Amino acid sequence: METERHWRALESLYASAPINDQFVSQLAIIEEGVARIQFEIRPEFFHAAGAAHGTVYFKMLDDVAFYAANTLVTDCFLLTTAFNLLFTKPLHPGTAIAEGRWVSGRRRVLLAESRIIDAAGNEVGRGTGTFQRSRIPLNSLPGYTGAGGPA
User: 133: which strand partners?
Assistant: First the structure.
């Protein structure tokens, strides 16, 4: 099935990004418009007050919203054009889950939202992003395997 190959290829693309060498994380495409990233919060991500720095929130919220939106686009890479973040609780060590869901748009600009759930099951952050189609073909990216991409 082409759709399933596209989703697995997006998971491969996520894993291939050099920035993800810094994070113990795994992307799973759940269904069209829905993605999840499980990741570990480690002390090296902390700010001076002993909780995760906002860059961790942004990275995970943006990534999961991006991949939820890119499930609907099979020909090109999306670019984040805007992202709004809401911090609701400190994020402490342990396993966390970022969940993303496409909200609207399919042609040029897509809107997706995301949230982070901590190890205790609390929502600790929320985000909303807009993503625009780029001129970068997905199948030109070395990490994108399947769905017509490199093997």
Answer: 78
Q: 2-140 belongs to which homologous superfamily? A: Hotdog Thioesterase (3.10.129.10)
| pTM, two decimal places | 0.94
Which strand ranges, in their side-by-side order, compose the sheet holding 76-87?
25-31, 34-41, 94-104, 109-117, 123-137, 76-87
Question: Per-residue pLDDT for the chain (151 aa), expressed as one digit of tens each?
Answer: 599 999 999 999 999 999 999 999 999 999 999 999 999 999 999 999 999 999 999 999 999 999 999 999 999 999 999 999 999 999 999 999 999 999 999 989 999 999 999 999 999 999 999 999 999 999 999 999 854 444 4
